[in-house]
Amino acid sequence: MTTNEYEGKPNKQTALICLIFFAISFVIYFLTKETDPTPYNNFIRLADAFLNGRLYLTEDAPWLELVHLENKHYVVPPPMPAILSLPAVAIWGPLTNQTLISIFFGSLNVSLAYLIARTITQNRKIQIWTTAMFGFGTIHWWVAVSGSVWTFSQTISVTFLLVAILLTLYKNHSFLVGLSLGASYWSRLTTILSLPFFLIYTHERWYKPSNAKALFRKIDIKFLFFLVLGIGLFIALNAIYNFARFGTPFDISYYLIPDIFDEPEYQKGIFDITYIPRHLNIIFLKFPAILEMPPYIIPNWNGLAIWITTPAFIYAFRAGIKNKLALGCWISIILIALVNFSHGTWGFAQFGYRFAVDFYPFLFLLTIKGIGDEIKWHHKILILIGIVVNLWGVLMIQEFGWMKLHEFGI
Question: Would 32 be classed as within a structural domain?
Answer without folding.
Answer: yes
